[in-house]
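step 3/5: co-fold with JQB
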Amino acid sequence: MRIDVVTIFPEYLEPLNVSLVGKARTRGTLDVRVHDLREWTHDRHNTVDDTPYGGGPGMVMKPDVWGEALDAVAASGEGEGEGAPALVVPTPSGRPFTQELAVELAAKPWLVFAPARYEGIDRRVIDDYATRWEVHEVSIGDYVLAGGEAAVLVITEAVARLLPGVLGNAESHRDDSFAPGAMADLLEGPVYTKPPVWRERGIPEVLLSGHHGRIARWRRDEAFRRTAAHRPDLIERCDPAAFDKHDRALLAELGWEPGPDGRFGRAAGAVEE
Ligand code: JQB
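step 4/5: write tokens
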């Protein structure tokens, strides 16, 4: 996969040289190219922003500079047989970035990221490229960043670990929380390693028992407890056909009960733990 990033802060993308993404790059699985947007300015001050039409606070990134940059990046990939890249624009008003979207993006041969600063990019840039390229406006969460670069790091790491050969066998994707598939709808429970006693704290007995069935059940219970506490929306969204008798008993103990549609919700008068 090829990834281009166009930014006014190329040094912000340095973490892409490290760890999993850095290794994927040195092994040739991932070709990452970071570009300074100011290379495509023509004035003495390398201006990338201007005041917003209609007034208001802050500045808006200029469409002409972004247009030249994106055209140049696209032209640099012509003849590599990939066709047009998919453009990814981080913005607080974008589609929520989820594991599902990570899987979708990991299937593309070529991504171009356009992380903005200030109040974002002149709308006409997104509208114009959307007539020729696949464009994804994406938000990594419900909080406000000062620009899109941190989102590029997040999205790139989530995508890179899905590329063939990037993760070792020891860490394959099947039980990831949120991975579409097996344990898709529950958060992961706690994990432990040696030593068996640390600061007078032991390990849950069941994990030392060697009873694989009981261990699997305990892990599922812990996953339910964490999910109910931190992400009740995930329990509510679950198809109750996925719950067995034990799950139902545990949910009842945690203050959940089936509603008219069979889906579980917090029981009226349930006590917050
Ligand atoms: C400028 C960004 C995010 C990119 C993601 C996320 O554009 C704005 N609008 C309102 C407030 C602040 C900004 C600043 N800003 C470019 C830019 C914020 C991304 C961003 C984001 N992806 N929160 N904020 N989840």
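step 5/5: annotate
Strands lie at 2-7, 31-36, 49-50, 60-61, 86-96, 110-113, 134-139, 256-258, 264-266.
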